[in-house]
Design a protein that fits this description.
alpha+beta, 2 domains, 7-stranded antiparallel beta sheet, 4-stranded antiparallel beta sheet, 220 residues, Jelly Rolls
Length: 220
C-alpha cells in the first residue's frame, strides 16, 4: 500500500494529510483513503461542492460542523458520519483540533457498505452510530487506537471487505448489472439530473428491469 504524506506548518496553523489506495479487490468500491490532522489558530470553514464520491468520515477530533447553506447561523455537529449526494454545496467547519479518516466511496461501494438505498440519504448526513450501532463506535475506536496510518488503512481494508461481502441482496444486483449490461456508468448528480449509460443489453425487457433496479437501489 503506497502511502503519500503532506505536511504544512505556519503561523496560521499546522496540518498533515496522508493518502493511500485501498486493496486492489476494493478498487471498484473505494477511490481513496485520506487521513488528516489539523490545528489552526482560528476556526475554519470550507465549501464542499457536490462530487461523484460518497464520503465516510471517521472523526478523531473536534466535531465536524455542517452548516445550513440557507441560514449559516444554523448547523449540526457530527462525530463520525457519512452523507448522501447533495444538490448544492455544503459548508463544513471545525472549531478546534481536527483529525480523522475519510473513505471516498463510489456510488455502488456506498450502497454495498451502508446497506440501504442511497435515495434515503439524499441531501443529508447521518451519524455512523445511527447506521451501525455499537459496530460504528468499535470501528472508530479501533482506527483511533491503531499505532500507524498503515495499520489504520489495513483495518479499513478488512472492514470494508467484510461489509461488502455481507451485502447479499445488492451483491446479487451487482452481479446482474455486470452480466446483463456489461457496462453501467453513473458518475455524477448535476442540476438534479441522473446520468446513466447502459450498453450491451440485447433484451429490452431485461434492460428496463435492470434500469429500474439500478435507480431504486443505487442512484442517490
Amino acid at each position: 500500500m503506497g502511502v503519500r504524506r503532506i505536511r504544512h506548518e505556519s503561523e496560521q496553523g499546522q496540518w498533515e494529510m496522508v493518502r493511500a489506495s485501498p486493496h486492489p479487490s476494493l478498487r471498484a468500491y473505494v477511490g481513496e483513503y485520506v487521513g488528516w490532522f489539523e490545528h489552526f489558530a482560528v476556526p475554519i470553514c470550507r465549501r464542499e461542492v457536490p462530487t461523484e464520491i460518497v464520503p465516510l468520515i471517521i472523526n478523531f477530533g473536534a466535531p465536524v460542523r455542517l452548516f445550513d447553506v440557507r441560514d449559516p447561523s444554523r448547523w449540526d455537529d457530527f462525530g463520525s458520519f457519512t452523507t448522501g449526494a447533495y444538490d448544492t454545496y455544503v459548508l463544513v467547519g471545525t472549531n478546534g483540533p481536527s483529525g480523522g479518516l475519510q473513505v471516498n466511496l463510489s456510488i455502488l461501494g456506498a450502497r454495498l457498505f451502508l446497506g440501504q438505498p442511497l435515495k434515503e440519504l439524499r441531501n443529508r448526513a447521518i451519524a455512523l452510530d445511527d447506521l451501525f450501532g455499537a459496530g460504528g463506535s468499535r470501528l472508530v475506536s479501533a482506527l483511533y487506537d491503531a499505532p500507524t496510518w498503515d495499520a489504520r488503512f489495513t483495518i479499513l481494508d478488512r472492514e470494508l471487505t467484510t461489509r461488502m461481502q455481507a451485502a447479499r441482496v445488492t451483491m446479487r444486483f451487482h452481479k446482474q448489472v455486470t452480466i446483463d449490461t456489461r457496462l453501467v456508468y453513473m458518475d455524477r448528480v448535476l442540476d438534479r439530473e441522473r446520468w446513466l449509460f447502459v450498453r450491451g443489453v440485447q433484451n429490452t425487457n431485461d434492460a428496463n428491469h435492470t434500469l429500474v433496479l439500478f435507480c431504486e437501489e443505487v442512484v442517490p
